[in-house]
């Protein structure tokens, strides 16, 4: 079954870091780009960055440059997104998505930042 | 950065009617790299249209996309009950940020 399975919800303190995972199955992991997109409550979708799952190269939105790191583990068909220096405005649902146009999405991981 | 503005913000229609959703870009979208997504409450978005007018696999043919340059349209020819959701347009560009989304149009049952 072609799917992306994300890790569970997280609650973090301001200033902390969070690392979210996204495990791919049912297709050739290294053949696709993979993205992270977030959505704050009631807000529009916001692209954070992407990784070439084959080569490991990355590009990040300027908004998150310096705070976000996207990595992958080809042996586990998994990508990761680590966001540092968390603040309350980072409270969002975080999605992974596949391909140049996001034809497959994970179900999302809720990250709550609260003191 | 290309800004995408969707209109209307909310569209109230009845099943069986035709829906026309608009997405306007602040500057020309290169190569018509414009996609449309549907999102239902509590769910991830679903790709409907890519490259402005190509339907994604498994998407019913009542969904169609058109437009070029700065003006794009998503048309749902005959609304089914399951079509009531929020719709987002998205553009892909060569310069960062590579992907931007519109603010969404909520399609609600009248």
| Main pleated sheet of chain B | 7 strands, mixed
State the low-pLDDT regions of chain B, or none.
Answer: none
Number of strands of chain B: 11
Q: What average pLDDT do the residues of chain B reach?
A: 94
Radius of gyration of chain B, in Å, reads: 13 Å
Total number of helices of chain A: 0
Largest interface: A-B, 22 and 23 residues
Averaging pLDDT over every residue of chain A, what do you get? 96
Global structural class of chain B: mainly beta
Beginning-to-end CA distance, first to last residue of chain A: 39 Å
Element order of chain B: H for helix, E for strand: EEEEEEEEEEE
Low-confidence stretches of chain A: none
- Helix fraction bin of chain A: under 10%
Which structural class best describes the helix and strand composition of chain A?
mainly beta
Proportion of helical residues of chain B: under 10%
Number of DSSP strands of chain A? 11
- Looking at how many chains there are and whether they match, the oligomeric state comes to heterodimer
Share in β-strands of chain B? over 45%
Which H/E pattern describes the elements of chain A?
EEEEEEEEEEE
Q: What value does the Rg of chain A take, in angstroms?
A: 13 Å
What are the SSEs and their pairings?
The complex is a heterodimer of chains A (115) and B (110).
Chain A: E1 3-6, E2 10-12, E3 18-25, E4 33-39, E5 45-52, E6 58-60, E7 68-73, E8 78-83, E9 92-98, E10 104-105, E11 109-113
Parallel strand pairs in A: 2-11
Antiparallel strand pairs in A: 1-3, 3-8, 4-5, 4-9, 5-6, 7-8, 9-10, 9-11
Chain B: E1 4-7, E2 10-13, E3 19-25, E4 34-39, E5 46-50, E6 54-55, E7 63-68, E8 71-76, E9 86-92, E10 99-101, E11 105-109
Question: Please, could you describe this protein's structure?
Answer:
The complex is a heterodimer of chains A (115) and B (110). Chain A is mostly beta strands. Chain A has no helices and 11 strands. Chain A has strands at residues 3-6, 10-12, 18-25, 33-39, 45-52, 58-60, 68-73, 78-83, 92-98, 104-105, 109-113. In chain A, the strands form 2 sheets. In chain A, strands 2, 4, 5, 6, 9, 10 and 11 form a 7-stranded mixed β-sheet that branches. A 4-stranded antiparallel β-sheet of chain A has the order 1-3-8-7, with no helix packed on it. In chain A, a hairpin with a 5-residue loop joins strand 5 (45-52) and strand 6 (58-60). The termini of chain A are far apart. The model of chain A has no long low-confidence stretch (mean pLDDT 96). With 110 residues, chain B is mainly beta. In chain B, the strands form 2 sheets. In chain B, strands 2, 4, 5, 6, 9, 10 and 11 form a 7-stranded mixed β-sheet that branches. Chain B is globular and about 40 Å long. Chain A binds chain B through residues 35, 37, 44-47, 50, 59-63, 95, 97, 100-103, 105-108, and chain B through 35, 37, 43-47, 50-51, 56-57, 88, 90, 92, 96-104.
């Amino acid at each position: 079954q072609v799917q992306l399975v994300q890790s569970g919800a997280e609650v973090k303190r301001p200033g902390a870091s969070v690392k979210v995972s996204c495990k791919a199955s049912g297709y050739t992991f290294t053949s696709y780009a993979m993205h992270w997109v977030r959505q704050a409550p009631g807000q529009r979708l916001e692209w954070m960055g992407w990784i070439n799952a084959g080569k490991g190269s990355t590009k990040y939105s300027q908004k998150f440059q310096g705070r976000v790191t996207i990595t992958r583990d080809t042996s586990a068909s998994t990508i990761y997104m680590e966001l540092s220096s968390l603040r309350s405005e980072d409270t969002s649902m975080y999605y992974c998505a596949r391909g140049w146009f996001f034809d497959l999405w994970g179900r999302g991981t809720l990250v709550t930042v609260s003191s | 950065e290309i800004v995408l503005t969707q209109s209307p913000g909310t569209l109230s229609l009845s099943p069986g009617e035709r829906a026309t959703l608009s997405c306007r870009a602040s500057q020309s979208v290169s190569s018509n790299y414009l996609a449309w997504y549907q999102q239902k409450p509590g769910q991830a978005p679903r790709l409907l249209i890519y490259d402005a007018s190509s339907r994604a696999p498994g998407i019913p043919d009542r969904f169609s996309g058109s437009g070029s340059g700065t003006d794009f349209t998503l048309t749902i020819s005959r609304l089914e009950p399951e079509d009531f959701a929020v719709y987002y347009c998205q553009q892909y560009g060569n310069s960062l940020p590579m992907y931007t989304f519109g603010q969404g149009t909520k399609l609600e049952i009248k």
